[in-house]
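Example (one chain per record):
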Amino acid sequence: MTGFLFLMTYAEKLKDPRWQKKRLEILSRDDFACQICASKELTLNVHHRHYINGREPWDYPSELLITLCEICHKKEEDVLKDPVELFRSLHFWGIFNYQIVEVFNKMIDEKISKSNG
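Predicted structure:
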């Protein structure tokens, strides 16, 4: 089954029963409401706060998943294209500049050690 998953597109993985189960758990936990604007009327998505290379959508810890309406979800996705909006969004979620710098420094250190090793 693992080899088959490797051939699945991301869209196909989102139809997988394991993702559908995880998605329902997150929607239920968040009271079927967008965690930014509180909408219960718009289409709801379960958003991955960040992606982990090689991990299947359903294998994420629940704290990395959040319910967002389609409008807020699009804004969260768009924020990745604009560095200023990215920092605003991170601050909204309670992440401070020094924490962002720590993450970037760790990423740089890992990249350097991979290229040297």
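Caption: Residues 97-116 form the longest helix (20 residues).
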